[in-house]
Amino acid sequence: MTRNRAHLLVNVAAWLVFAALASTGFLMAYRLPPGDCSNSMLGLSRHQWGDIHFYLSLGFVSLMVVHLLLNWKWVTVTLSGLFSGRNPDGTARGFGGALLLLFLGVVTALLLVAPWLFGVDGQGRGGGRGKGAVPAGSSR
After folding, report:
1. What is each CA distance from 69 to 40, 42, 62, 65, 75, in whole angstroms?
2. End-to-end CA distance of the chain, in Å?
């Protein structure tokens, strides 16, 4: 497979997965509101659509990593020229682009692990006072 064909396939797949990701996000936000377990679409509940949305997001992130790897030379050359200038012979000088890439990598890694860095307090959007709330001192 040629490099151009690989670029095309990764980019088209990324676009399709992104479109599906946006579609499931809009579906859960506007058509299947939180807290209403009685609604479903195409036989799937909001929770099941959320699972599909999650796996689509993993696929999209994976495709973006492949996209970045396929374009790595362009990224490094462009960033080093942009942030550190060029020598008279056209070669890049300095480490500005590499430092920016390192910074972006660290920020991305922190954002990916952030959900596990912070505790869950048990107070969702409704503060636990929804239809399923049980008054203190009573049991089901």
Report:
1. 39, 37, 11, 6, 9
2. 62
Question: What 3-state class would DSSP assign to 103?
Answer: helix
Instruction: Please list the residues that pair with 86 across neighbouring strands.
Output: 92
84, 96, 97, 98 from 89: Cα distances, Å: 14, 19, 18, 20
Q: What is the dihedral of CA 120, 129, 140, 119, to 10 degrees?
A: 0
pLDDT digits (tens, 9 = 90+) for 55-79: 999 999 999 999 999 988 887 777 6
Q: For residue 45, name the pLDDT band (cuts at 50, 70, 90).
A: confident
Q: What distance in Å separates the CA atoms of residue 135 and residue 9, rounded to the nearest whole number? A: 56
Strand partners, 92: 86
H or E stretch including 96? helix 96-117
Report which residue type is found at 127. Answer: G
